[in-house]
Structures are given as structure tokens and as C-alpha cells.
Amino acid sequence: MPNVTYNVVAQVDGGLQNTFTLKMDSIGHLESAKGHIVSTLVGDMNRNGYQQRKAGWLGGPGYDGGHAGPSFFGFIGERGGLFPQHEWQNRKAGTPNSDFNFHEVEMKVINKVKNKVTNGSPVDLSWDLSLVPGPRAGMPASAKLTYFFDDDVPTINEFNNLPELVG
After folding, report:
1. Is the pLDDT at 81 greater than 80, yes or no?
2. Over the Cα atoms of the chain, what is R_g?
3. For a surface tag, which of 16, 80, 106, 151 has the fewest beta carbons within 10 Å of its beta carbon?
4. 3-state SS, residue 15
5. How far apart are CA 78 and CA 73, in angstroms?
6. Domain for residue 166, yes or no?
């Protein structure tokens, strides 16, 4: 739905809850996704293959339906939490479109959370992904990710989402 904000609570491991806010643009496509993560969702089951393919089709050849937040954290795997993401950014497949890769950063964050959980340390992760409008409706030109653990200084990254190589 256009111009809607969704607040999602995900029941995750340890009886805890991760919270997410998804904001849609004027035509009902994802504009931003924020999350407060305190635990993981073992099994990574929060996926919908059909919805992922459908989101990727909007981008055309070389695009996947990318999650705005890791399903490992219980992030919504339905249409509202997906966007057309260049396959290099989503899973390091196809032709690179940048030296900087979303998948690598996502895995770095996931591994840090896994280490915290394994060591019995509390998890306090803030995740904020904003999609920068692109050449056509629903197709972002880039994705800006800001994340931080506890009260650390935020890490800010911007990822190209267009086929052209950006160095």
C-alpha cells in the first residue's frame, strides 16, 4: 500500500523480539527499513521464493529480490521487505557493479551477532536501510545502510544498485 508505515515484531530465539519499521513510498514500494535486533532467528526460514523472484523481475535481468534486512534476524521475507537488488550486491553473483558489496557487509554484521550469541553477550544492533530512488518507480539507484552495535559509532555504507560499475 502507498504511503504506509508498517511496524513488525519478530519473535526470535530466546523468547526475545526484534522490531522493524518499513516505510513504503507513494506507489507502495519499499522506501526504508529500520530494525532493532536483540537476537537471531535460527533456521533462516523467513523467506518467500516467489516474492523474491517477483521483486527481482522489477529490476530485470541481473536482479534478485533482496531483503532490506537479513532474514537471519527475523526480518520480513514478504513483498514489503524486498526490493530489486543487483545480483552482485545481493549474493556476489554476475558482473560486479562496484568494488563495495552489500552481501559482504551483511555477512560481517551477521557473523558479529553470531559471535555475540555464542559468547553469551547481549545483542543490541540498530539497522537502517534507505533506498535512493532510481531510473524508474520501485527500482532504487542505491541503498544506504547505517548500522551500529550498542552505543558504538554508526557505520554508514552506500551500495550501487545499477548495472554500471562504480569504483
Report:
1. yes
2. 15
3. 151
4. helix
5. 14
6. no
Q: Which domain holds residue 55?
A: 5-160
Instruction: Work out the pLDDT band at 44, boundaries 50, 70, 90.
Output: low
Candidates 9, 17, 67, 19; CA nearest to 39 is: 17
For residue 167, tell me if it sits in a domain: no
- Asked if residue 82 lies in contact with residue 75, where contact means CB atoms within 8 angstroms, the answer is no
* CB environment 27-53: b (16+ within 10 A), e (fewer): eebbbbbbbebbbbbeeeebebeebbe
Number of domains in the chain: 1
pLDDT score recorded for residue 21: 97
Q: What is the CATH number of the domain that holds 101?
A: 3.40.570.10
| Whether the Cβ atoms of residue 140 and residue 133 lie closer than 8 Å to each other | yes
